[in-house]
Amino acid sequence: MEENSLGGSKYLLLIVDEASGCMKGFCLRAKSESEDCIKTYIMKVQKQFGKKVKFVRHDGAREFATNSLKDFYEDEGIEQQTTVPYAHQTNGTAERAIRTIVTIGRSMLHHAKLDKRFWAEAAMTAIYVKNRLPPSRV
């Protein structure tokens, strides 16, 4: 984001479950934090629902393609799918979700006349609200 959040975060990691459309957001100070967030999220989902994550799709950014993450995916039997770099349309589900969350968050900040440093709180609130709406796809 353009400005650090109140908590010092600079990045938003958004994970979208393609099966349910449910989203999970993580506010990060550094991109390197994304690896632990992804691992924690996958383990939590697998324990809560008793189902294995079958694949992870990402844009091939360095923080998503570490050797440690590759080993984790292999150990968990998760297929890693990498989309074409710099072609956001090939990762449409995630890109659309990011755009939606950022738009809703900015609208909330503008309407409430809040400073940009509240972006993380606005994004997490947008995710919370969006997860409680019925899915638009059938």
TrEMBL record:
Query: Signal peptide position in this chain?
Result: none
GO molecular function terms noted in the UniProt entry = nucleic acid binding
Residue ranges of domain Integrase catalytic in the record = 1-138
User: This protein's superkingdom?
Assistant: Eukaryota
Q: Which Gene3D superfamilies match?
A: Ribonuclease H-like superfamily/Ribonuclease H
Biological processes, Gene Ontology terms: DNA integration
Q: What is this protein called?
A: Integrase catalytic domain-containing protein
Organism of this sequence: Phytophthora cactorum
Q: What is the lineage of its organism?
A: Eukaryota, Sar, Stramenopiles, Oomycota, Peronosporomycetes
